[in-house]
Amino acid sequence: MLKKRWLIPSAFYFIFFLWYTNISGPLSEAEINTVIGRIDSGKTSISVEDREDFLKFLRQDDGGDFYMVNFLDINESPPTMEVTGENASAFDLLDYYMEYMYPELLIRASHPVFGGTVSAKAIDHIGAKETKEWDQVGIMRYRSIRDMMEIANNEIFAERHEYKTNALLKTIAIPVSAPFFLDFRIIMFMFLLSITLIIDRLINRK
């Protein structure tokens, strides 16, 4: 009976671990060339400097997860868009954008880990005066760079992304490697271990 009680949580954690962890390794050279090829085709507007920075980001892929830190300056008077219509707020535009993003993120074990409204102008912004004012900050966890690129390469993303760009006056997205960040794999392991130990103790008392 003891082994059976541990079998279910062990199997559940094994499935969760496989879903939450990229087991396909880093991007291959062919995958990188495909991404850069799409950029060079002119479908994406990007400066030469940003292209080189992005290429370096792809080549440094270790296959692990990473976090995208987003700073958002909301457009109080966004333009009229086809789907959201007249008098739509910036948040209406962002909701339409995220309507596509959330399902695509979740099936790839990617998700928000932090979001908040800025409570004051930036206190420290050395050499970057234009970064003084922001409205919101969010952090998104991606299982891998490959997962992020699969989301971005979908044709629906290009159409929805236009709503995001029109909802914002400016934005910065910075990829961050955080090996010591609180990991849901550890949280899930501790949760299942605790529940199973409690059940064992309760049964053994009988």
Q: What's the SSE pattern?
A: HHHEHEEHHEH
Q: Radius of gyration in whole Å, from Cα?
A: 21 Å
How much helicity do the residues have? Answer: 40-55%
Q: Could you give the count of β-strands?
A: 4
At the third CATH level, what is the topology name of the domain at 63-206? Alpha-Beta Plaits
What class, by secondary structure content? alpha+beta
Poorly predicted segments = none
Shape: globular
| Count of helical stretches | 7
Main pleated sheet? 4 strands, antiparallel
> What is the CA–CA distance across the termini?
14 Å
Mean pLDDT score: 90
Report on this model:
With 206 residues, this protein is α+β, with helices and mostly antiparallel strands. It has a domain at 63-206: 2-Layer Sandwich (Alpha-Beta Plaits). 51% of the residues lie in helices and 16% in strands. It has seven helices and four strands; from the N terminus they run αααβαββααβα. A four-stranded antiparallel sheet has the order 2-3-1-4. It starts with a helix and ends with a helix.
Summed up, what is this model?
The protein is of the alpha+beta class.
Looking at this protein, list some descriptive labels.
single chain, 206 residues, alpha+beta, Alpha-Beta Plaits, four-stranded antiparallel beta sheet, 51% helix, 16% strand, globular
